[in-house]
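BUG: 3D viewer hangs when loading the predicted structure for this chain

Environment: internal workstation, default settings.
Expected: structure renders.
Actual: progress bar stalls at 90%.

Input used:
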Amino acid sequence: MNIKVLLQAVNTTWMLLPSYAESLSLMVHKLFAGEAVDLGDEDEQPKEYAWAVDAKANRIGSVTDAVNNGVAVIELHGAVMKYDYCGSVGTQSLAKALQQANDNPSISAIVFRVDSPGGSVDGTQEFAIELANSKKPVVTFVNGMMCSAAMWLGSSTAFRIASSETATVGSIGTMCSWRDFTAYYDKIGIKSHEVYASDSTQKNIQFREANGKNQDGKSNYEPLIKTWLDPLNGIFTSAIQKNLPNADKTVLNGGHYIASEAMKRGLVDAIGNFEGAVKKALELGQAQQTLTQTQKSNTMKWKNFLGLIGFSTAVGSASEIKLSDANVDSMEAVITELDRFKTSLATITTERDGLQTRVSQLEQTIAANNTKITSLEEEVVKLSKSDGATVSTVISEKDKTGGGENVDATKMDFQKDLYNKI
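Structure tokens produced before the viewer hung:
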């Protein structure tokens, strides 16, 4: 462990799973007891904590050079800390990787891969806000443990998937623990002194009271609880309730659960593998892209309307618009014109419907007339055949009797009679 991490463990407030906090306190005890403690390489750089994968969860490169439709993976492994120490990445670096993923148009979504017991209060809220405000959807994959401060971070994302039913989730609560070495120091002849300025009556009052450094020499934890732990816990639990409004309220008492129970209580949404987390992230990314396109279309329509009422410059959201009297007058004129158009459209629609009815009637009349004409034409053909034969017979008979001079008259009478029939 890096000496800076150790100092943080001693001097700052942590949101940690108690068992992990106990391991840190044992290391502190060894250090004060003069035992050998491996503090690690102070200059060791954090291991890889951000990369990109494809739809099948195969690595395709870094967050910055990912191909189209890639998914960024940002990993938190170990204690949550603000700064990079001893090979562990801090929330500031994680936030930078998140920003890179949001800035790369080839990244569609983000998977926040977590295996952490919690960590330092400092930096947790800031990174939780970054996760909540991510332009691209973030899915948390619990790869073993997501407790305390890590739970705060995971709750800030769009969806949470635990790697197995035995993953540990929760520990939503705030505690403070320390070791009082006063008796040990007295035993080895070390006497500690604390001196405060005359006006610094409240400086460290919570810890002075808790350590029994008051008039009666008894430990009083109430100031530490009321002025430090309760306010911090209120911020923590309020954030969880905001992020997970449907979660069972019992999860706010500090308990931690295996994933199957955590899912029943609303702390995680599903149990699955890493590839499933990537798939879910892509689904959310596609849904967000569709929504964004719809919003852009609506924005263009809104800006076009604003142009009609006199806004010549680009505007942001509707909440940023301040209408002048001229804008209001223009808007009223546009609304009046729209009403007139609506009335005219209704009139035109009525007229159109009447014309369509009239056209339908005319089409029916034409169809009936066509049927009648066809019938008459057929009758003409029949009459032509039968009457034509009679005329020929009459003419023939008159020729035989020498009545040829009346043939033309007979033809004319027949034609007249045929015309009258038609």
